């Protein structure tokens, strides 16, 4: 009869540990990861109710999202994303509330990221900016289920917003926030503010929310959607804030036909 191997019990224990760790790895790999959510708030350009440099009447009607400079025009948020091969519009909602004229929901087909874009009536710019800060602080705007195009079942969006975006006129040049909002959770939230000199005007209200700036501006700018699209490309790819800033600056330089150095000075990703 052969002698028992002195390391037998140890080898058996090691196999059990390896099997246990492998099981954990398989379970983690197969677990569903909640998709990320971007919420874009657009205050429609409005010649009559905002302190903007007047634009052609058809583009500056804050009650007509379909033709508005910041929504339905060529470089408006909805039109530009609809023309992008990376994003698919999966739902639209007319008048979801008294301030929002139109809501468009997009899916980033490669990553599964969802994007809600809300077109706020131009005269409701104060509501739009207050809602931006509510989202930045971690509050829920109570959107609920979304009815999708076609015969697909309704969509329940992720419970939390990972990236909050404001685009349009910098209303804080014309009015002050009624109150600052404290962050309601420890989850990571980032913001993009595409409005003139947004770093100087939005920073005081943003700090208490706990959200971090991913991209905002240091001077006058056109808040058109090619900048947003470029920034989202970098954010979805997991790039650093500095890389996102560089992407946005390059897109802005291209479409505005300005130098890359001038565009880089316009954008910031830090406090």
Overall morphology: globular
- How many strands, what sense, and barrel or not for the largest sheet? 8 strands, mixed
Average pLDDT over all residues: 90
User: Rg to the nearest angstrom?
Assistant: 23 Å
How would you write the strand order of the largest sheet? 2-3-4-1-7-8-9-10
Estimate percent helicity: 25-40%
Percent range for β-strand residues: 15-25%
Descriptive report:
With 271 residues, the protein is an alpha/beta fold. The protein has one domain. It has seven helices and ten strands. The strands form two sheets. Strands 2-3-4-1-7-8-9-10 form an eight-stranded mixed β-sheet, sandwiched between helices. Strand 8, helix 4 and strand 9 form a beta-alpha-beta unit. Mean pLDDT is 90; it is low at 16-31.
